[in-house]
Amino acid sequence: MELLIASNPDPDSRLAYLLRLPIEGGLVFRTSGTWPRTKALYCYPVSADEWPDDPDIVERAPLRSCRRRGAAIDVVLDRYRENRSQLVFTKARGRDAVFWQSPRTRKQARPNLRTPSARAAGIADLEIIVDSREHYAYRFSTQQVNVVKRTLPCGDYGTLVDGRLVAAVERKSLGDLVTSLINGTLRYALGELAALPRAAVVVEDRYSEIFKLDRMRPADVADGLAELQVRWSEVPIVFCENRQLAEEWTYRYLAAARQWAYTERDALPRIAPAADSETGDAPAAPEPSTAEVRAWAMDHGLPVSDRGRLRPEIWQAWRDAHR
Question: What residues does the ERCC4 domain cover (predicted)?
Answer without folding.
Answer: 127-207
